Amino acid sequence: MFNFTALPPLSLYVHIPWCVRKCPYCDFNSHTASSGLPEKQYLASLFADLEYDLPEVWGRPVQSIFIGGGTPSLFSAEAIDELIAGLRLRLPIEPMAEITLEANPGTLEAGKFSEFKHAGVNRLSIGCQSFNDDYLQKLGRIHSAKEAIRAVESAHAAGFDNFNLDLMFGLPGQNLNTAKADIEQAIALSPSHISHYQLTIEPNTLFHYSPPSLPEDETSWAIQEHCENLLSDAGYGHYEISAHAKPGKQSLHNLNYWQFGDYLGIGAGAHAKISSAAEQNITRSWKHKHPDQYLAAEKTHDHISGTSILQRDDASFEFMMNALRLKQGFAKTLFTERTGLPIHQISKTLEKAEQLKLITQDLSTIQATEHGLHFLNDLVALFLKEET
Question: Is the pTM of this model over 0.85?
Answer without folding.
Answer: yes
